[in-house]
Hints:
The complex is a heterodimer.
Chain A: E1 5-7, E2 12-14, H1 23-54, H2 57-72, H3 83-109, H4 111-116, H5 126-138, H6 142-153, H7 158-165, H8 169-191
Antiparallel strand pairs in A: 1-2
Helix pairs in contact in A: 1-2, 1-3, 2-3, 3-7, 5-8, 6-7, 6-8, 7-8
Chain B: H1 3-16, H2 25-62, E1 116-120, E2 123-127, E3 132-134, E4 144-150, E5 166-171, E6 177-179, E7 185-189, E8 193-202, E9 206-214, E10 217-225
Parallel strand pairs in B: 3-10
Antiparallel strand pairs in B: 1-2, 4-8, 5-6, 5-9, 7-8, 9-10
Amino acid sequence: MAATFWSSRSSSYCDVCVNWTSPGEAVTKRGEQRLADLYWRHADDAVRLGFLLTGDQHSAEDIVQDAFVRLFGRFQELTNPDAFELYLRRTVVNLSRDRFRRLRLERDLGAREANSSFPQAGLASQIEDRELIRHALRNLPHRQRAALVLRFYADLSERDTAEVLQCSVAAVKSLVSRAITSLRNARENSMRGEVP
Amino acid sequence: MSDIERQIADFLHEEANRPAPSSGMYERVLRRAKVRKMVTATVAGLAVFAVVIAGVVTAGTLRAPSSIKSAGPGASPQPSATPPETGDCRRTIPPQPGFVPPKPYPPQPPEREKAVWYGSAALWTMLSPEGETWDEFPPDSGRFTDKTLWWSDGYSWTEEPTPSIRVTGQRLDGPGSFEAEGPVTNGFREDMGSFMLGGIEIPTAGCWKLTAKYRDAELSYVVLVKR
């Protein structure tokens, strides 16, 4: 007869299975370990992406939490671990869309204050230029903004951007082109002293 | 890259240069993920329960009441409904509510197992309410090994440390069979009582009927084994 051991991890006596973990516990622990690995690898970047899409740190963190929770149940289905980043980005972009709309509505309510703080002509310093870009970016439609962020921040190719946004490469080109035109117009209007 | 594109890229990178996510965010994610998983499992369990009830009601309306027999001690309950995602494998769906073992055993398995008791007082085990699908195996081994747990009224882990239970498997969707090798060990948990724990190695993936024989009792269930 084998010796009997007490396993504090499983709170059980067991002769030959010192580290025995019940099947239910094992699956749960493996799932949690996978979640932890993916979280520490991707959460930071995902929050930055969420921030650039919403312009709000708290919203970004909420969105990333939601994204991980949504994807948690699908980890088992991922045959290619590299695909997780794509799913996470896509989920963050989709979740930020709703948040973006709400924030934009709030901004519209405070439009008067926003307009009064818009950079005026003649103030061509770097700070004003940054404010101009920030303001113009916030006023872009969500998909245009997402396309810019994915292309110029995440450094994704047009094809990868199209995968995240679930559209064609031509649509990405169009979104980026329209976004840049909007930013260019905003800058020219600012140079002329026109408030957008 | 044009000037304005470079300007946008610089702006975005500067904007993104922010502190890491607040501490405690991972704990919140984990907590919410667990709650979501529990809710999903509960909903799935209720759905299976509804399907089983609907099946029982339908069977009751189609058959005479005398055709429904209750399983006595030592009997092997038969597989019932087949969830659609399992193809042709008719996994054993335990009746709901599950078998209630005699005292001092708990009326249900511990909640963490997300399972119900299945069998009779002579021999029982625990099964997922949706049927057993095994797709988590030790990495890199290439083997389908798992532990099976069995209970029997009167079995004592201290008096019978290597119980004389025999576990065999018969593949239902192709050729194949096995018999568990090596001694079955004893086990005890406060919330499970005395049980028998037998390691098995299933030769291939597929639809398998596992059968345990202990003393005069026999119990079978069907499990889907996947890579």
